[in-house]
Specification:
The protein is α/β, with parallel strands linked by helices and about 475 residues long. The chain folds into two domains: about 5-145, Rossmann fold, CATH 3.40.50.720; about 175-415 and about 435-475, Dihydrodipicolinate Reductase, domain 2 (2-Layer Sandwich), CATH 3.30.360. The chain has 16 helices and 17 strands. The protein has a nine-stranded mixed β-sheet, with helices on both faces. Strand 14 and strand 15 form a beta hairpin. It is globular and about 85 Å long. The structure holds 6-O-phosphono-beta-D-glucopyranose (BG6). 6-O-phosphono-beta-D-glucopyranose binds next to loops.
């Protein structure tokens, strides 16, 4: 059994993610009695704060980002007492030595380091820790996305971190893996006999994965512009969902078995070529429009200058292996879409032969797995319409399982709660292994190269629409439709 970490060093502690997600998650873990008694959080950022000042910052974040009924001043105070703050700038050796002084008596025990900084600081921060003698064989390092902006740069980051910490102790975060609904995909596929025999090219016509967002740039232009939807969402979250949907059954639920199967899928993605790019990919950028009744400006206006960055992408992907031969996977994601909606749709093939003659307008079965904001599983099936007609008429009805209702009494956890707990306990199953990240980038690079070669530019779409009309054509050309 790996020793749980009683020390958590957070770099980027003054940032948005730390305020919104990491501290509220630590609070929830503490409130549920899941943090060790002698837990110490060393928060670090570039700005100067005293311990007291920073504790007040955290308390403010908890007030803001926890629901009112969840915030309990007694727990907030307990968490505050576990926090100290140390200003550290990458490259400043003296500051790393000062940080080390906070670790008195803890260096021979497991320490979890969380890098929630811009990616350019991952390697220098880890190096600073190493130079100050703060990385031991018991140190784990977690890194937020993005790891690089293409395969070559992600290799550089991975090489730099790998040189200091063994791969088994590197925890690459993809927060979608911390979502209960994403983990539930494994339960659905491998905890039921019902689906697996049909989960292949002989019964499935195509798969759709949609991650729609209503938000725009949210003040993140310095990160987002030049990155775009393909790198921001497809490279990580969507490919992780795709790999879980498409993978072979792992032998057991452990980090090696699960990640071995996911990486095989990622490596089987057919690279995009310039010739394919025109029909199998769409880039879009939102213009002015209205989202859920609110008038909003376009991306370029928000940014203050014209840009070639896509805020929407739709792709037709192929997984070149035995199970999925000939089954397209349609992916789409974007900002300023009509609704916030993440879902997977499995479109089954029609029955081989209809016994119902011309009245049997048989719609093929559809399985819809809604990941957020609602959580449900819907299976569309054909049934007989009640009546005495001699000829049977069929109608489609829905088998509807609301997970929200089924587990109504249970608090939905922040994805980061699961991930931070797993990091502290040393279980990397829900973190992304180096070979996965690199297989993801290899495919994304093929798309970026194909766009360059075929000169594919983002097409405008009015905010509040499901991307440019070419995204509809991408799927309708094949006789299918997006589930809007
Ligand atoms: C992040 C992206 O990784 O995921 C954001 O950088 C995006 O652009 C976010 O908004 C979506 O996450 P969620 O959990 O709100 O679906």
């Amino acid at each position: 059994m790996t020793e749980p970490s009683a020390t958590f060093i957070l770099f980027g502690a003054t940032g948005d993610l730390a305020h919104r997600m990491i501290f509220p998650s630590l609070y929830n873990l503490l409130a549920d009695g899941l943090l060790p008694r002698d837990f110490l959080i060393i928060a670090s950022g570039r700005s100067a704060f005293s311990d007291e000042e920073f504790r007040a910052e955290v308390d403010g974040a908890l007030h803001k980002f926890l629901s009112a009924d969840r915030y309990d001043p007694a727990f907030a105070q307990q968490l505050g007492a576990m926090i100290c703050y140390e200003a550290v700038e990458a490259g400043n050796a003296e500051q790393f030595v000062n940080l080390g002084k906070r670790l008195d008596g803890r260096l021979d025990r497991s320490i979890s380091v969380y890098l929630s900084t811009p990616p350019s600081l991952f390697a220098p921060t880890a190096q600073g820790l190493a130079d100050a003698g703060l990385i031991t064989p018991l140190t784990r390092i977690a890194m937020e996305k993005p790891i690089g902006k293409d395969l070559a740069s992600s290799k550089q980051v991975n090489d730099a971190i790998d040189a200091l910490v063994d791969e088994s102790r590197i925890f690459r975060v993809d927060h979608y893996l911390g979502k209960e609904t994403v983990q539930n995909l494994l339960a659905l596929r491998f905890g039921n006999m019902l689906f697996e025999p049909l989960w292949n090219a002989s019964a499935i016509d195509h798969v759709q994965i949609t991650v729609g967002e209503t938000v725009g740039l949210e003040g993140r232009s310095s990160y987002y512009d030049g990155v775009g939807a393909l790198r921001d969402m497809v490279q990580n979250h969507m490919l992780q969902i795709l790999s879980i949907i498409a993978m072979e059954p792992p032998a057991r639920m452990d980090s090696t078995a699960v990640r071995d199967e996911k990486v095989k899928v990622l490596r089987s993605l057919r690279p995009m070529t310039a010739e394919m790019a025109k029909t199998n990919s769409v880039r879009g950028q939102y213009g002015p429009g209205a989202v859920q009744g609110q008038i909003v400006t376009g991306y370029a206006d928000e940014l203050g200058k014209p840009s070639d960055t896509e805020t929407f992408v739709a792709l037709k992907a192929h997984i070149d292996n035995w199970r999925w031969q000939g089954v397209p996977f349609y992916l789409r994601t974007g900002k300023r879409l009509p609704t916030r909606q993440s879902e997977i749709l499995i479109q089954f093939k029609p029955v081989r032969h209809s016994i119902f003659g011309r009245n049997g307008d048989l719609d093929p079965n559809t399985l819809i797995i809604r990941l957020q904001p609602e959580e449900y599983i819907r299976l569309l099936i054909m049934t007989k319409r009640p009546g005495l007609e001699r000829e049977v008429h069929l109608d489609e009805v829905t088998l509807d399982v609301s997970l929200t209702a089924a587990f109504a009494g249970q608090r939905r956890r922040i994805a980061y709660e699961r991930l931070i707990l797993d990091l502290l306990e040393g279980d990397p199953t829900l973190f992304v292994r180096r070979d996965e990240v690199e297989a993801q980038w290899a495919w994304i690079d093929s798309i970026i190269d194909s766009w360059k070669e075929a000169n594919v530019k983002p097409a405008p779409y009015p905010s509040g629409n499901w991307g440019p009309s070419s995204a509809i054509a991408l799927i309708e050309r094949d006789g299918a439709s997006w589930n809007d």
